[in-house]
Amino acid sequence: MTLKYEFPKGFWWGTATSGPQSEGSADVDGKSKTIWDHWFEIQPERFHNGVGPEHTSTFYSNYKEDIKLLKETGHNSFRTSIQWARLIPNGVGEVNPKAVEFYNNVIDALLEEGIMPIMNLFHFDMPMCMQEIGGWESREVVDAYAAFAKKCFELFGDRVKHWTTFNEPIVPVEGGYLYDFHYPNVIDGKRAAQVGFNTMLASAKAIEAYKALGQDGKIGIVLNLTPSYPRSTENAEDVKAAHIADLFFNRSFLDPSVKGEFPSDLVELLKENDVLPTYEANDLEIIKNNTIDFLGVNYYQPRRIKAKETEVNKDVFMPDWFFDNYEMPGRKMNPYRGWEIYEKGIYDICINLRDNYGNIEFYISENGMGVEGEEQYINAEGVIEDDYRIEFIKDHLAWLHKGIEEGANCRGYHLWTFIDCWSWTNSYKNRYGLIALDLATQKRTIKKSGRWFKELSEQGGF
Ligand code: BGP
Q: How does residue 1 score in pLDDT terms, banded at 50, 70 and 90?
């Protein structure tokens, strides 16, 4: 069969999930609380339908069967995360043997099925004991995280050859310190800047620890890139506003991760507004010397930006002082999640990485479509016919293919997600999986997209 879109040999086909969203067993076998467990205890009403982080799928107890389903849906690679609160329940010190056993079993089972594990070390899941001493505002936590990362490399690095230090590090900054959708629900741009800087430093320190061990693998970071498009490219104020949004939400982590340096215009802007984070003498050198080997790109949506038109409260520094979001007429929306669908964004990312970031090796580490009420698409055989998801993937892959043809160094495509999973404050509102989960019975049923994904992976394209 001739394929219209054929991807390079050895392309990574798979999905991503995270420990806190899939493992369940939140308080089993010595795992301590994360900020999510804590926040749900004190404010359950902030979670969709009051469904908290203990209601995930049951990967902790059911990983063997789930890994068979990975195989059945054509995965040759898979990303999940190691929960810090499970491996080192006090944040520092003693390692939990039950957690070591679990992650060893998962890694071995993946390898037995010929599925390459990509292990991530932080997916929004700050151990509560670490938050209590300041979370990412604290240097002690930065060092504790680096020690946790080193422990993971020592324990699992003989088999795991692809690591990522963080998933979407900008999200806890936005959610926890700017826009109130993660614990600790602070709204303060100055503190946000410090949290962002310390997270970046923590990533570099983990990379430093990895390199010092001399293991023969690669280490990277997963960033959610949101290309920023100005309302009008002819309006200098719109262009400037889009540039500033790009500095805050993309380049704040992309530049130091790939190039080892923060963008000078971002530094200037923070300085002018008296919100530059504090740092120690050799922090910048650590960041400079410990850049990534490869990048994971999560792509969901672009940002549409216009010059600031609305009034701002100048009491607390916020990125929003410099731009407004622009509701571009006619843009295609995912009505459930409220996110714009703009397939070409994935191509623009390819070209940006090719031209401005040394053509860094990357893979699409998340892309996906969250849908409510998928039960309405169940056919007589009990299978969800999610043709919209297949179309969504194809449309993005077509643009990704074009980017690769034009020289972008992309090694794979991972969908979010494998089995429908629990999702932060949205809980089970939006379903993203190749496999449907019945939360009450824990029954898994492969969706039409899951069958199609296997074909896609086996053919190496479509
Ligand atoms: C990404 C996260 C995932 C996942 C996904 C879908 O930002 O890395 O953890 O949740 O988005 O988003 P949501 O669950 O908010 O709909």
A: confident
In the structure encoding, which two tokens stand for residue 403, read together?
């980017």
How many angstroms is it from 380 CA to the middle of ligand 1? 31
> Which atom of ligand 1 is the closest one to the Cα of 370?
16
Considering the entire predicted model, what is its pTM?
Answer: 0.98
ipTM computed for the complex: 0.98
Q: What gap in Å lies between CA 441 and CA 127, rounded to an integer?
A: 29
Whether the Cβ atoms of residue 47 and residue 422 lie closer than 8 Å to each other: no
Residue of the CA atom closest to atom 12 of ligand 1: 423
State the pLDDT at residue 371: 98
Per DSSP, helices labelled H in 134-188 are 139-156, 170-177
**Phi-psi category of residue 258: left, alpha or beta, with phi > 0 → left and psi -120 to 50 → alpha:** alpha
Measured from CB, residues less than 6 Å from any atom of ligand 1 are 18, 21, 167-168, 171, 224, 298, 337, 366, 370, 416, 423-424, 426, 430
Break the chain into its structural domains and give their ranges: 12-459
Give the architecture (CATH level 2) of 12-459: Alpha-Beta Barrel (3.20)
Report the alpha-carbon distance of residue 142 to residue 332 in Å, rounded: 40
Summarised one tens digit per residue, pLDDT across range 420-450 is: 999 999 999 999 999 999 999 999 999 999 9
